[in-house]
Every structure is written in C-alpha cells, then in structure tokens.
Design goal:
By secondary structure, the protein is an alpha+beta fold. It has helices at about 5-30, 55-60, 60-70, 85-90, 120; strands at about 35-45, 95-100, 105-110, 125-130.
Length: about 130
C-alpha cells in the first residue's frame, strides 16, 4: 500500500528532476557551436625552430625512436618538429578557431561558423596554401 509519505517523496523527486532538467537544458544547448567551414593552412616552414634544440623524447615516442634506430633513420629531423605555434596564433588572431595540426605535413586545420575570406590567410608571409576542406 502506498502511504502519503511515499507518495510525497515520489512526487518531490519527479518535481526535482523536472526542475533540474529545465535549468540545465538551456545551458547545455548554448555551449554547442556548429562550425560549418574548415580550412587546411599549409605553412612554408617551421619558423626558426631547429631539431638540435629539442630532445628526441619530446618529439617522438620511445617506440618511434626504436623503429628509427632499427632502420638507421636519423632523428629528430625537421618533419618531427611541431607546427610553429606563433603561426597558429597569428591565424587565430584573424578570427579562425584552431582545430588540429599535422607536424609531418606542416599544416593546421582551422574552422569558422560562417564562410571566411581565405585571402586574409594567403596574404600571411608564412602561408604557402589554403584549402577549404
């Protein structure tokens, strides 16, 4: 048999869940940004970075180092260096949102909500090419 106390707690719990859901739902939906445009930015160089200034362990995993040792491939080399962070920051300052980078291809992927003028990026002295992807 359902008592008044049990009924009270069940109703209170349901009201609580509905209230919390009502308060949280707008916050969650407001945090989602849909990026519709992606731009692959190809950089001309790695900037003033030099492989000699890095420890191999900072750039490559232990397994990668072992593979290179076994194959007789020297490391670190320019392709192992990260994308120049100053280049990334300058692109971000033009209104693009950073998504990810490829150190091997020396590129970074940026995104925007609406279509942007890629000529802003192409005019940067360290950019060799921009592709809309």
């Amino acid at each position: 048999m359902v008592t008044r106390v049990t009924l009270f707690w069940k109703c209170s719990f349901i009201i609580f869940v509905v209230a919390v859901t009502t308060m949280i739902a707008p916050l969650l939906s407001a945090q989602v940004t849909t990026y519709n445009y992606f731009y692959r930015v190809y950089f001309k160089d790695k900037g003033n970075q030099n492989p000699a200034n890095f420890r191999a362990g900072d750039l490559l995993s232990a397994k990668a180092q072992k593979r290179r040792d076994k194959a007789g491939i020297p490391y670190p080399v320019m392709n192992d260096l990260p994308v120049n962070q100053e280049y990334v920051n300058q692109v971000k300052s033009k209104g693009y949102t950073y998504h990810c980078a490829s150190k091997w291809l020396n590129t970074a992927l940026f995104k925007t909500v609406s279509h942007a003028d890629i000529n802003l990026l192409i005019s940067l002295p360290f950019v060799s090419e921009v592709k809309i992807v």
